[in-house]
Design a protein that fits this description.
This protein is an all-alpha fold. It is built from 8 helices and 2 strands.
């Protein structure tokens, strides 16, 4: 239903783009301060930066990540949403991977426990922002992430094609007669008239159309019978 280029001022798109920029600024600040401090590139001990431990490699990764987020936000809401989800997942993976090597010589990013907690928090924030208004079982009609496929699925929803309840006695009688005729066909006791009527309404798509046609057949039958008696 919507083209890949999303409506730029839609609230969902604004949340994705602004969220990506804000997270990018926080990460970039951490990275820049690490460079300003002249940290060793592969120093596994790290040095404190904003309450976290960092080295040159982690600072570089932080700045690259910030640039990717800002570039995605500049391109559009869909891309920024996707990038935030991917980066958020990578933050969570990084948190647990670096926790496993934190006390070993393979602690190349100089992680400490505050870094692990920060990575988990940042990862969850990115996942929530990236998924906002996009990952849902039922998206509103004005949501820019709705696609034509969503409408197709809705049209194929069995609940959308349930027959309406009869509103008049004539409709109730028609429903009852159609049900009786169907049961008679199954049991092999249907009359020729019942078979003819069922064959005539069989090609109609909806129950309402079949009911209306059945009632029209009944009216024609009553009219013909009245004419014969006259």
């Amino acid at each position: 239903m919507n083209a890949p280029n999303l409506i730029a001022d839609h609230k969902v798109v604004v949340v994705h783009r602004v969220g990506a920029v804000l997270v990018a600024l926080a990460i970039a600040t951490f990275g820049v301060l690490g460079f300003v401090g002249g940290l060793g590139f592969f120093d596994t001990q790290g040095s404190p930066v904003l309450g976290l431990s960092s080295n040159g490699l982690l600072s570089t990764i932080s700045i690259v990540t910030a640039v990717v987020l800002i570039a995605a936000a500049a391109r559009g809401g869909r891309l920024s949403s996707t990038v935030m989800i991917v980066v958020g997942a990578l933050f969570l993976v990084s948190a647990f991977a670096n926790l496993a090597v934190m006390t070993t010589p393979y602690n190349l990013l100089a992680f400490r426990l505050p870094n692990v907690f920060f990575s988990i928090g940042a990862g969850l924030v990115l996942l929530i922002l990236g998924s906002y208004g996009r990952v849902s079982a039922k998206l509103p009609d004005d949501n820019p992430y709705r696609t034509a496929g969503d409408d197709d699925e809705r049209s194929e929803d069995p609940s959308a094609s349930l027959p309406s309840r009869p509103k008049t006695r004539a409709e109730m009688r028609a429903d009852r007669e159609m049900a009786e005729a169907s049961r008679a066909v199954v049991s092999g006791s249907a009359s020729a008239e019942q078979r003819r009527r069922l064959a005539e309404i069989d090609a109609l798509r909806t129950h309402e159309d079949r009911r209306a046609r059945w009632m029209a057949i009944e009216e024609d039958h009553d009219h013909d019978r009245g004419s014969a008696m006259a």
